Amino acid sequence: MPITEFLERNARIYPNDVALVEVNPDNAPEHHVTWREYNLIEPAEGEQYRREITWQQFDIHANQFANFLFTRGIKKGDKVGILLMNCLEWLPIYFGILKTGALAVPMNYRYSADEIQYCTELADCTMLVFGDEFTSRIQAVRDQLVNVTDYIFVGKTDATPDFADNYKTMIHYCSITPPPVLLTDQDDAAIYFSSGTTGFPKAILHRHEALVASCQTEQHHHGQTREDVFLCIPPLYHTGAKMHWFGSLLSGSRAVLLRGVKPEWILRTVSEEKATIVWLLVPWAQDILDCIDRGELNLEEYRLSQWRLMHIGAQPVPPSLIKRWKAVFPHHQYDTNYGLSESIGPGCVHLGVENIHKVGAIGKAGYLWETKIVDEQGTAVPQGEVGELAVKGPGVMKCYYKNKTATDEILKDGWLCTGDMAREDEDGFIYLVDRKKDVIISGGENLYPVQIENFLRAYGKIKDVAVIGLPDARLGEIAAALIELKKGCICTEAEIMEFCTGMPRYKRPRKIIFAEVPRNPTGKIEKPKLREIYCGGSLVEAQISK
After folding, report:
1. pLDDT below 70 — which residues of the chain?
2. CATH at 479
3. How many whole angstroms separate alpha carbon 453 and alpha carbon 466?
4. What is the pTM of this model?
5. From the centroid of its chain, how far is CA 241?
6. What are 195-219's pLDDT values in tens digits?
7. In the Cβ-directed half-sphere of 419, how many Cα atoms lie within 13 Å?
8. Which of 213, 337, 422, 482 is an S-S bond match for 346, by CB 3.0 to 4.6 Å?
9. Count of the separate structural domains present in the chain
10. 408: left (phi over 0), alpha (psi -120 to 50) or beta
């Protein structure tokens, strides 16, 4: 059963129920106008604060776009690129592509023009669907995109570039009838891209089977019902955000797309949209707590009692953060999820809401998944020892598209080698130790940056921290801690070093750098960027050589 049938089922059973809401805080009305009153105002095109569509409208728009694609020669197996910020059109476009049997190819909204060109060519896209934010980047490389025959613009009609057609205009007169395309679980469905933190991204090919399995995994983990409202903040191009929304798709419940991450906006949207489930990234959760601590947010001004679940994924979660969160929101269920784009996003490992006593672990094998921890030869290591985490399940990618060598390196007899170092405790819970490529070897000792980062985050003045290895003539590498302080805090290197005496001596960072910690849109620390900055003729390198 392809995932498109879930949408069609919801359209039949819940035709008039709201499926998706888009909230744009930048277009918020003046304070004297309530959100509900604002819905009665007729804003100019493209300037809406809040938009919504029902399940029936969602399915109709997907059908219209699918039928439009047929008019442009798109057929089963073709690839259609998506370059959009989160918006109400995103998911109907995605499902419209799937309904034709073509492959949806979502792209990172941070991609440069060169990266857009690279990914478009790698995935063999013949059409690009894009928003206004990407016009100039596409124009810069359009002459090189010789295989792209159609450009579809999502935005105001009068802003449509001369080389593109307007999405709204094109689908207006298209049939609302579902396209007569036979889809199977083994058909190719989508191409996602790796984070690209070690060079240009790899193209990850997934079947329809993976999409359906992710729906089942997510709904099984978090028990979404018709009454739940899911607040989605992370970008939809990433597997994580979309696959968490798949639980809402399976249950036929509402989702809210919030275009902004300010703590006030998040709490206001939870309050006004009656959100019950919120997926946060670590920095956003920290920002909310910090604003509360500084008195910038008054929880009594918001309606938050219905908020039942806060879950975090995409990066290691400091136990100290969850302890802080539970002190403020004691009634919240908490879960963390682990996954990769190669495993169709989160869920192949998850903690489980009943296991908060194991905070710090990523959990156990998720629903429909298996896990093992192996050595360099692929042999399972004894319980408690560190090895590479491998996962197996219906969400494992088919391959890296057009890259057999890279595929063979990561797929072993159906097992996906994650590249993450982990250990399993006596109760079978898995703890991430670090990325395989991020392990620091200092004086013959293996240092795992995540362990050091989690320790440092417990210090009250620290907002964020990243630990990287820097070259050292005697030890080979040393651990350096890049520390971002909380707003208004003053701290010295000596102060941090004193705090670090709580760690074994060999684990302590030998260099402290006060600077902002760069993270990508899914919250992962951009460590290759840090290595580039601080390992190549940098101030730190100069300091080390003294």
Report:
1. 29-47, 195-199, 314-316, 434-435, 443-446, 473-474, 476, 521-522, 536-546
2. 3.30.300.30
3. 6
4. 0.81
5. 5
6. 654 457 889 999 999 999 999 999 9
7. 14
8. 337
9. 3
10. alpha
